[in-house]
Structures are given as C-alpha cells and as structure tokens.
Design a protein that fits this description.
- Helix 5 packs parallel to helix 6 (173-183) and helix 9 (298-309) packs parallel to helix 10 (327-340).
- The protein starts with a strand and ends with a helix.
- By secondary structure, it is α/β, with parallel strands linked by helices.
- It is 36% helix and 13% strand.
- Strand 9 (276-281), helix 9 and strand 10 (315-319) form a beta-alpha-beta unit.
- The relative contact order is 0.15.
- It has a single domain, classed as Histone deacetylase domain (Arginase, Chain A).
- The protein is built from 10 helices and 10 strands.
C-alpha cells in the first residue's frame, strides 16, 4: 500500500496540553508518526512518498476563509501580543453570549476553539497544512485509480469543523480529501470513522449533505470527549437527513460488540453505493490507549482491516488518533495489511 508522509509534521511539537487540571506533555506528539512510519518500513508495506502542494483552494472547499486566516496568523498574533507561553484560550462565547469574533487574539482563540486542551504553538499552521497536503496527495492517487492509499497525517483532523479547532485537530484532513474526491468525479463518498472519539468536525462539515455519508463508531459522548456530539439521534439535517450514522458504545466495549457495530456501519455504506471510501483511522480503540476506554487487541485491527476490504471500495486511510504507545504502529499497520490481504 502506498503511504504519503511529510516530515513537516515535526514543525508542530507543542510543549503543553491541559489534561486533568495540569499542563502536561501532549499526548499528540511527533513520536506518534515516527512509530507508525517505522512499522511501515519494518513490514515493507509499500512505497512511502512525500506530498505534493495543493494550495488553499481545497481547504476553502470545507473550511471558512476567516478561520483559515486565523490559523495562519494565530501564533504570530499571540507572540506579537507579548505572550510567552503557548496559545490556549481562556474564554468562550457560551450560551446566550454574542457569537462575534473579537479583535483580541485571546478572544479569537476562544471564538475558534472547541476545547482548551489543544495549544497553538510555533509551526502549527505549517504542520497542519502539510497534513492536508498528505491527505490530498493520497486522495489524488485514489482518484487516478489506485485501490488503496494511506495518508500518514499529523496533526490529525476529524475534530476540526468548518470554523473550529480542538481535539488536537486544526484542518479536517479526511473531509478535505472526501471533498476532493467529490470534486474529482466521485458522485458519492462515504467516510467511516473508527477513531475512539466522535469526529464532530467531519459530521459538522457534511451534516446537511446527501452526497457524503458519515458513519462513526465511538465512545458514548455521555462519557467521552467531545461530549456534545456523536449521539445516536444525530442523523443529519435538511437534504442530509439520514446520511449521518452514529454508533456510540459504552466503557469497556470489547471487540465483539465493536465488530457488530462495524458490520452495521459497512451495511449502511453498502446501501449508500459510494464510489470511494475515506477511513478516519484512529487506533485509540486499543485496550492500552492512555485516554480511551475500549478494549480492542492488536489482532482485532487486522480483522477489521479485512472487513473494510470486503466492502469492495477504493479506500483512503487517513491517520487520526491513537497515542504514543508502542503498539500504535502495530495497530495501524495491522489494519492496512488486513485490507491488503488477498
């Protein structure tokens, strides 16, 4: 399987994450990508290439222009205002407050942030835009007829909405790729999100559209981040009614239950008759992941890779979550190798 990867992910190396009431070393770290890449090389999964540059046009197809401008300028504005640490919001436009973007960088952070754990640091925009190029390059190969490709993206993307960042995400790599495939001739694209956390951003981007099906398996938001998105009764709106399927599951979910949910997801994708499949590949469903509560074992990732293969669609895998435990590389490559099995 072809892998697309950029060393520009190293430009994002934040020092701080707000977690458990403390500023800690971030879970979303450069080591994540290197562990996955090392495993790809060790198993000789296939060619690894650098991304092409696509510019702003594909980003503007799914993200608000003012939001993109904010991301480009945020670090410079933060430093220019005299701040010494990394940029973390401390005020949000909560219920019954004005939904207006202030001039102050602190106000802008609160306006565009969905959560406070994700700091903006030096190189954030450059790494995020490179990750989008990784996804777009892989998508271009799918558009040209390749059966499968892996976008080794960092930072991840599925929590990034049209005009919101958070959950370690800034640009929605999977959504950008799905829209690129639509613009390239695919009449219908399905997105299968297997990350432990609900992809609120992807859902937001396509919620009122019938041409992109979004299906997510995730921890029940009653218990799990992002808490305010991913309930089973969120099924789409307007023309998109019925084109979102959420399959939330409780703490300590074992693979048997998770696999049944995947069967439901794949049946819905088959009914949709998609021309291409984008898989938001988060492996934080693993039993030893530090911030999740499912109980999948490494061999389970091979099994579900084969299940995705059997749906018979060209597939673009986009890396989402799964944190820097040693098994992240094993689990990601197990999915990809499972898909590649004859």
């Amino acid at each position: 399987m072809l892998t697309v990867f950029s060393t520009d992910h190293l430009l994002r190396s934040p020092r701080t994450e707000l977690y458990g009431g403390e500023l800690v070393r971030p879970h979303e770290s450069p080591e994540r990508a290197q562990i996955v890449l090392d495993r790809i090389h060790a198993l000789r999964l296939g060619e690894v290439i650098a991304p092409a540059r696509f510019g702003p046009a594909p980003l503007l197809r799914v993200h608000d222009a003012a939001y993109l401008e904010f991301l480009q300028q945020a670090w410079r504005d933060w430093v220019g205002a005299g701040n010494r640490g990394e940029a973390i919001p401390d005020c949000w436009p909560a219920r019954r407050m004005a939904q207006r973007c202030p001039n102050s960088i602190l106000g802008k952070l609160g306006y565009y942030a969905m959560a406070a754990e994700t700091s903006i640091s030096h190189g954030t925009w450059e790494a995020a835009s490179a990750a989008a190029d990784v996804a777009l390059t892989a998508a271009s190969r799918i558009k040209d007829g390749v059966r499968a490709a892996f976008a080794l993206c960092r930072p991840p993307g599925h929590h990034a909405a049209r005009d919101l960042y958070g959950g370690y995400c800034f640009l929605n790599n999977a959504a950008i790729a799905a829209q690129y495939l639509r613009d390239g001739g695919a009449a219908r694209v399905a997105i299968l999100d297997v990350d432990f956390h609900h992809g609120n951003g992807t859902q937001d981007i396509f919620y009122d559209r019938p041409d992109v099906l979004y299906v997510s398996l995730h921890g029940d938001p009653v218990h799990a981040f992002p808490y305010f998105s991913g309930y089973a009764d969120e099924i789409g709106a307007g023309l998109g009614n019925g084109f979102t399927l959420n399959l939330p599951m409780p703490p300590r979910t074992e693979f048997g239950i998770w696999q049944d949910a995947l069967r439901t997801a794949l049946a819905r994708i088959a009914d949709f008759r998609a021309d291409a499949l984008v898989v938001s590949l988060g492996v934080d469903t693993f039993v030893a992941d530090p911030i999740s509560f499912f109980r999948l074992q490494s061999e389970d990732f091979s099994t579900y890779g084969r299940m995705i293969r059997d749906c018979g669609l060209p597939a673009l895998f986009v890396l989402e979550g799964g944190y820097a435990v040693g098994e992240i590389g094993v689990n990601v490559v197990n999915v990809l190798a499972g898909f590649e099995e004859a």
